[in-house]
Specification:
With 115 residues, the chain is an alpha+beta fold. The chain has a single domain, classed as Alpha-Beta Plaits, CATH 3.30.70. It is 28% helix and 35% strand. It is built from three helices and six strands, in the order βααββββαβ. The strands form two sheets. The protein has a four-stranded antiparallel β-sheet. Strands 3-4 form a two-stranded antiparallel sheet.
């Protein structure tokens, strides 16, 4: 079985758009979706939500405030899933709750580092 990285992107922070009750319902969708993946033994790493604070380091040791200074979408989090193929991983990704709020899932193969 291979491992695939799912990166969750959205245009804005969900907390800014939704009431506390709506956020609780969205979080429950995430718990259910990830719990289903884990129940199939396909959740290799439960990943993490990412905060809004950060820095970007560019060539020449130039440091820019914010991890998303030059992009319109922000990376909100990630998980690593196990699947036999990219297509199977995409089927898992189709259930991601971020798709219900205008976000998207970037799916990437992982290449082990030799060394």
């Amino acid at each position: 079985m291979k491992e695939f990285l799912m990166i969750f992107r959205n245009n804005a922070l969900p907390e800014a758009k939704y009431s506390p009750d709506e956020m609780q319902a969205i979080m429950k969708q995430w718990e259910n979706w990830m719990g289903g993946i884990a129940a199939q033994n396909k959740l290799a790493n439960s990943g993490s939500r990412l905060g809004t604070e950060g820095l970007t380091i560019k060539p020449g040791n130039v440091i820019i405030n914010g991890p998303y200074a030059e992009i319109k979408e922000i990376v909100g989090g990630y998980i690593i899933v196990r699947a036999e193929s990219l297509e199977e991983a995409a089927e898992i990704g189709k259930g991601c709750p971020i798709l219900n709020v205008g976000g998207n899932v970037e799916l990437r193969t992982q290449i082990p580092m030799n060394g």
